[in-house]
């Protein structure tokens, strides 16, 4: 019986990332994608399960002659997620902070270039519990 | 207490099956699949995840059209080849290739060919066991919307996104990387072949600009390490192209931000990317050879 419990427990732990990813896809599709209209969205799936205190970076190529919408969509469990768009030299071109939170940024580029999206989940107050808060953060790019 | 344990495990297992899409059969493939790690979920230290986003085949096809490229069906991968791909790595590369051909045909409103390439892509998706994301229902939706170009393009984009997401959520990121690599190589192949007949400055610029996503693609493929022979081979191909693009100057550095017609405009002082005749010729030749090795 103990063996069975151990096996099932191990199965649960091993499969947790898959479950979390599946939930992330569903979250991105149902809660984030509708906000991309009328832009056509880029077909790459960029989403991650992040915990408070964690960072993520996405490098993106933007072509001249197109308009873009960049959307950072975080599960409400994480609260506000800080994010910024920076050029190759590290200059911040757009910033979403707790004082001025924004989910998306519409823009175009004069010349084709690579820009980076930097995401930071603030360390939240865990309220003295040991519960680990992990939530999906999806980065969607649309163009027209 | 014992009953509570059973209930907990039963619920957990039911949840796992629901999340994995139910009745899908496990795939048999030659690739090394990275082990799922519960550390992805349970973390104690600050980490930084870096993602590489490669422009999609649909975006590339749209850029080619905007640059004045014409449609040439003769350069696309023959639909008859689809049954030749038995190894998972070839299936993944050619899912990307047929996906790019599908985008190219659809952007140019060639509905009949779009349907043929949809069929090829679906066959490969089935072989790769991604029918959860690309199944007959998708083909039916495409067929139903075949006369509405915008709907068709949206369904194709959504399907490609679902396939990519499905592969990643099932720990098959290396298959996803090969699919993305195949799609990108096909886009470059189409552009360079079209440029042989329509060598316009706009098209040359778009080809030169591929240096930027190529660097990201190399970064993406490198994340899977050299132990996987298919990944190692694709990396070698991409690095061969990277060497040919090495002297292509692309805009970088400080950017400014202004407003133009109510939209933020990110500008720079650098001139657009460009290619010499020799560079274009070398890139065209190498892309042809690499793409041939993928489709044959």
Description:
The complex is a heterodimer of chains A (144) and B (296). Chain A is of the alpha+beta class and 144 residues long. Helix content of chain A is 22%, strand content 38%. Chain A contains 1 helix and 9 strands. In chain A, the strands form 2 sheets. In chain A, strands 1, 2, 4, 7 and 9 form a 5-stranded antiparallel beta sheet that branches. Chain A has a 4-stranded antiparallel beta sheet with strand order 3-8-5-6, with no helix packed on it. The longest helix of chain A is centred in the N-terminal third of the chain and has 31 residues, at 2-32. The radius of gyration of chain A is 18 Å and the shape is globular. Residues 11-17 of chain A have low confidence and may be disordered. With 296 residues, chain B is mainly alpha-helical. Chain B has one domain (52-295). Chain B contains 11 helices and 3 strands. Chain B has a two-stranded antiparallel sheet with strand order 2-3. The model of chain B is unreliable at 1-46 (pLDDT under 50). Classes of the chains: A alpha+beta (144), B mainly alpha (296). At the A-B interface, α1, β1, β2, β3 and β7 of A face α1, β1, α2, α6 and α9 of B. β7 (104-109) of chain A pairs parallel with β3 of chain B, so a sheet runs across the interface.
Distance between the termini of chain B: 60 Å
Distance between the termini of chain A: 59 Å
What is the tally of helical segments of chain B?
Answer: 11
Overall number of structural domains of chain A: 1
**Can you summarize the main beta sheet of chain B?**
2 strands, antiparallel
Strand content of chain A: 35-45%
Largest interface: A-B, 68 and 73 residues
Poorly predicted runs of chain A? 11-17
Give the strand line-up of the largest sheet of chain B: 2-3
Query: Which overall shape of chain B is indicated by the principal axes computed on the Cα atoms?
Result: globular
Alpha-beta content class of chain B? mainly alpha
Q: What sequence of helices (H) and strands (E) makes up the elements of chain A?
A: HEEEEEEEEE
Number of strands of chain B: 3
Into which percentage range does the β-strand content of chain B fall? 5-15%
Tell me the number of helical segments of chain A per DSSP (H or I, 4 or more residues long). Answer: 1
């Amino acid at each position: 019986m103990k063996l069975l419990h151990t096996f099932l427990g191990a199965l649960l732990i091993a499969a947790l990332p898959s479950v979390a990813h599946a939930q992330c896809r569903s979250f991105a599709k149902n809660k984030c994608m509708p906000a991309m209209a009328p832009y056509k969205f880029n077909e790459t799936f960029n989403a991650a399960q992040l915990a408070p205190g964690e960072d993520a970076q996405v490098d993106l190529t933007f072509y001249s002659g197109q308009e873009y919408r960049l959307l950072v969509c975080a599960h409400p469990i994480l609260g506000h997620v800080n994010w910024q768009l920076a050029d190759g030299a590290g200059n911040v071109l757009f910033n979403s902070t707790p004082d001025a939170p924004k989910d998306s940024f519409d823009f175009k580029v004069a010349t084709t270039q690579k820009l980076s999206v930097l995401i930071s989940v603030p360390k939240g107050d865990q309220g003295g519990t040991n519960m680990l808060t992990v939530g999906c953060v999806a980065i969607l790019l649309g163009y027209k | 207490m014992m009953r509570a344990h059973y209930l907990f495990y039963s619920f957990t297992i039911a949840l796992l099956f629901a999340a994995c899409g139910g009745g899908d059969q496990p795939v048999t493939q030659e690739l090394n699949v990275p082990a799922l790690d519960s550390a992805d979920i349970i973390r104690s230290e600050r980490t930084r995840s870096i993602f590489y986003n490669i422009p999609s085949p649909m975006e590339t096809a749209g850029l080619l059209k905007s640059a004045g490229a014409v449609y040439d069906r003769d350069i696309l991968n023959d639909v008859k080849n689809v049954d030749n791909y038995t190894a998972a790595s070839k299936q993944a590369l050619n899912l990307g290739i047929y996906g790019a051909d599908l985008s190219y045909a659809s952007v140019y409103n060639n509905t009949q060919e779009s349907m043929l390439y949809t069929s090829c892509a679906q066959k490969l998706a089935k072989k790769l066991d991604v029918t959860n994301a690309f199944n007959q229902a998708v083909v039916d939706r495409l067929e139903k919307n075949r006369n509405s170009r915008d709907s068709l393009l949206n369904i194709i984009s959504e399907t490609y996104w679902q396939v990519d997401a499905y592969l990643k959520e099932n720990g098959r990121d290396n298959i996803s990387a090969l699919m993305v690599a195949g799609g990108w190589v096909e886009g470059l192949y189409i552009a360079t072949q079209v440029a042989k007949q329509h060598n316009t400055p706009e098209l040359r610029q778009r080809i030169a600009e591929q240096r930027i996503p190529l660097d990201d693609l190399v970064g993406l493929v490198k994340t899977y390490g050299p132990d996987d022979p298919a990944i190692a081979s694709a990396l070698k191909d991409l690095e061969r192209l990277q060497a040919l693009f090495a002297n292509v100057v692309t805009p970088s550095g400080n950017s400014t931000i202004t407003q133009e017609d109510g939209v933020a405009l990110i500008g720079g002082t650098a001139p657009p990317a460009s290619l010499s005749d020799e560079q274009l010729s070398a890139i065209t030749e190498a892309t042809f050879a690499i793409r041939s090795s993928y489709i044959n």
